[in-house]
């Protein structure tokens, strides 16, 4: 039927192309990337990303109609549809620094497509991009395309890490934006829609104009992050008044107009999209002369930052206003369960806050390596979304953190001789830990600071722990302690 090539073998490109290959066995699907180690990982028995169900899908298709390659130019050149799933990091310098999306990699990809093409192409935006990016890409291809025709489509992803394969196999919707006002644009939209229609019901395939599709992705992430910040803001009030955020969220979520999803209080949201996309939205609003709208969305980020700092303050103030020299076990470093992704994880800010007060931190996460922890704690803000060769290379042993940070093999090792345990990722295994055994190996008083509301508070208090759980009625011990260190 067609050949599909995806530029970028990351969290979006790899799983998406694997599922397309699975459901469309007659389509040749190639994922290309300039990173040899990443491509080697996709061709190995240990994939470079962890996602439940991904291994099985890749193994079914790899060698049949799915391949991974570093031969970028060759495969892009002869593809009919080119998905572009490259980084769009937040700018760290220049105009719009700290807010605007850096489209350097997108522009490079567009110029490369024009240089190597030997036929007409459909170019699909799979990365999250600012509104009107497609217009810039059209201009680049039109001026460098050597007579070939290009149609630009926006096909944003709406995957949740940890359930990405399930989301791809049974999506809420597939959104395709294109120039439906032209015959060629309409045909391109229909062709891509036909690929998804192999397994997605027609009523879940939505087609719009280009700008609506580009903005829908930013808006969707902003709305989801807003819900998390809203419930986290209420969690602070719950602690101050003695209300229980779980009961409040349950009651609120029963309203059909609101719904129950994304109403779980936590130490804060993370991941590669929420903060970056909201900052991008803020910048776009400012550029279009909408300062009030920009300010509204900026508050979502501020509440998220407040929730993380509030958690650190609660830890320090509860432990006699200092954690200097005290061992603190951190359970969970990924930004959510069922993924090894640490991009913008709240654990980074919490760990840095504890380290700033001279704590000794012992970290355990079932899917995050010590190397990744070291890189994350060495990075400056927004470094993570730039190519790996531009990220800091420092290891913990080469920094002042050497004596303050350790990575443990399991939760019990992390908690041995610790004064406190901080739960920062909602891994299922943390619900079933033997907390009595953990308590016996800890310094006393022993604290548990639950940033994900995964423990049974009453049971832990019976064991002897001083327990703080986000948005829950405070332990008697904590009622006498200031909320801010």
Q: What is the overall pLDDT average?
A: 91
Strand order in space, largest sheet: 3-2-1-4-5-6
Distance between the termini: 63 Å
- Report the oligomer: single chain
Poorly predicted runs are 394-398
In this structure, how is the largest beta sheet organized?
A: 6 strands, parallel
Count of separate DSSP helical elements:
18
Overall geometry comes to elongated
Spell out the key features of this protein.
six-stranded parallel sheet; alpha/beta; 18 helices; UDP-Glc/GDP-Man_DH_C_sf; 485 residues; 42% helix
Care to describe what's here?
Involved in the biosynthesis of UDP-glucuronic acid (UDP-GlcA), providing nucleotide sugars for cell-wall polymers. Its EC number is 1.1.1.22. It comes from Urochloa decumbens. The protein is of the alpha/beta class and 485 residues long. The strands form 3 sheets. Strands 3-2-1-4-5-6 form a 6-stranded parallel sheet, with helices on both faces. Helix 6 links the parallel strand 5 and strand 6.
Concise account of the structure shown:
Belongs to the UDP-glucose/GDP-mannose dehydrogenase family. By secondary structure, this protein is of the alpha/beta class.
Chart the SSEs and their pairings.
Layout: E1 3-7, H1 13-23, E2 28-32, H2 36-42, H3 54-61, E3 66-69, H4 72-77, E4 81-84, H5 104-116, E5 121-125, H6 133-144, E6 150-154, H7 164-169, E7 174-177, H8 183-196, E8 205-208, H9 210-241, H10 245-253, H11 274-287, H12 291-318, E9 327-331, H13 346-356, E10 360-364, H14 370-378, E11 405-407, H15 411-415, E12 420-423, H16 435-440, E13 447-450, H17 457-463, E14 466-469, H18 476-479
